[in-house]
Every structure is written in structure tokens, then in C-alpha cells.
């Protein structure tokens, strides 16, 4: 069993208004759909609002291009690392800025992005983006998305790898477009994003 990711859009004021010691458990509750544990349930895709009936200020995004695993996100970041030196400067600038706070570790240093004081120190998160960061990511996505198709050829030469969770450009672009959907909707609602390892 590997690492999973559950992405939540969160009303940041409500989150900050929740006692620090209760925040993680509240979001973990919102991340756990009752249907996810039913063997006969159809998989959910896209945004689910609210994430849980008693956490109405929180939405959950279910990636349709993954099985809940963090591995495709990690390998998309690795693919970008392999690709970025072989693309036009404009595309590199905008995709760098878009992926930096989401799935790409530019400097190779592990950083869970936790904002000091937001959660107890023993809680590991995969993603923490307050509303201002989400707003900036939406702008980066608006500039990066039209340039994605220009990455197809260099991706095939420098980043395609059979056996990876993200083997080819189509899988890479689908996952990036899903992240575009995530940040765009969270921004529209004025919310932040939290990625839990669940």
C-alpha cells in the first residue's frame, strides 16, 4: 500500500477559526466519504460539495486520472523535472510556477508546505495553499494551459517512460488539467487547498 492524496478546498477563515488541535481530524473526517468504503459504490469523480454533510465549508476533489494514489502526482513532477530544460522559456516559467506549490519539488528538498501554527507540528500534509496562493496558481494556470500542447514533442523525447505512473504526454496533460480544475474552482470560491495523505 502506498501514499494516497486527498485534496480539499477549504474556507480558510473557518479553518483558522477551528481550534488548532481539532483541525486535522476535522479535515480527515471531510476527506473520508462514506461511499468510499462501500464495495458497491460507483467511484466519484471531480468536485464533491460539501466534502461531508457536517463540514459544509469544505469540498473534496476526486481525481479521475488516478486511483487516489499520490504516485501519479509524484511522477508527473518527476516528468516535468526531466522535461523543463527542453521547452521554451515561456512554457518553463509558467509551468514551473504552476507546479511548484502543487506537485513539483524544484530543489529536491522535501517540504510538506505546512504553514507554521496551522496544524499541530506532528501532522504531515502533502499540500497547503492559502487562498492567496490558490489565486496566484490560477493565474499561472491561465498562462500555462494554452502552452501545454507545445510540450508534447519534447515530452516524448525527454520524459516519456514506459512503466512510470505517468508514462506519456497524454497522461501528464490530463493530470495537469485536473490540477487546473482544482485551483480554478477553489479560487472562484475564494478558498484554500489542503492535501492530506489519505
Helical stretch count? 7
- Summarize model confidence as the mean pLDDT: 87
Structural class: alpha+beta
Using only C-alpha atoms, the radius of gyration works out to 17 Å
Order of neighbouring strands in the sheet with most strands: 2-3-1-5-4
Order of helices and strands: EHHEEHHEHHHE
Q: Can you walk through the features of this model?
A:
The chain has 198 residues and is of the alpha+beta class. The protein has one domain (6-196). Helices cover 42% and strands 11% of the residues. It has 7 helices and 5 strands. It has a 5-stranded antiparallel β-sheet with strand order 2-3-1-5-4, sandwiched between helices. Helix 4 (89-100) runs antiparallel to helix 5. The longest helix has 20 residues, at 169-188.
What topology does this entry show?
Elements: E1 6-10, H1 12-16, H2 20-31, E2 46-48, E3 58-62, H3 71-83, H4 89-100, E4 127-129, H5 131-144, H6 152-158, H7 169-188, E5 192-196
Antiparallel strand pairs: 1-3, 1-5, 2-3, 4-5
Helix pairs in contact: 4-5, 5-7
The gist of it:
By secondary structure, this protein is of the alpha+beta class.
Amino acid at each position: 500500500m502506498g501514499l494516497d492524496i486527498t485534496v480539499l478546498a477549504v474556507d480558510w477563515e473557518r479553518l483558522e477559526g477551528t481550534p488548532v488541535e481539532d483541525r486535522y481530524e476535522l479535515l480527515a473526517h471531510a476527506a473520508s466519504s462514506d461511499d468510499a468504503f462501500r464495495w458497491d459504490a460507483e467511484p466519484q469523480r471531480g468536485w464533491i460539495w460539501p466534502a461531508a454533510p457536517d463540514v459544509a465549508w469544505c469540498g473534496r476533489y476526486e481525481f479521475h486520472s488516478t486511483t487516489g494514489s499520490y504516485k501519479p502526482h509524484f511522477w508527473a513532477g518527476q516528468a516535468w523535472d526531466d522535461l523543463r530544460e527542453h521547452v521554451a522559456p515561456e512554457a518553463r516559467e509558467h509551468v514551473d510556477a504552476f507546479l511548484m506549490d502543487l506537485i513539483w519539488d524544484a530543489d529536491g528538498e522535501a517540504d510538506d508546505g505546512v504553514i507554521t501554527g496551522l496544524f499541530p507540528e506532528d501532522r504531515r500534509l502533502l499540500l497547503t495553499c492559502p487562498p492567496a496562493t490558490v489565486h496566484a496558481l490560477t493565474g499561472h494556470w491561465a498562462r500555462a494551459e494554452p502552452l501545454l500542447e507545445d510540450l508534447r514533442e519534447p515530452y516524448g523525447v525527454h520524459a516519456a517512460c514506459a512503466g512510470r505512473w505517468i508514462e506519456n504526454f497524454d497522461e501528464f496533460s490530463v493530470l495537469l488539467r485536473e490540477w487546473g480544475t482544482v485551483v480554478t474552482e477553489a479560487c472562484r470560491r475564494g478558498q484554500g487547498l489542503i492535501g492530506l495523505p489519505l
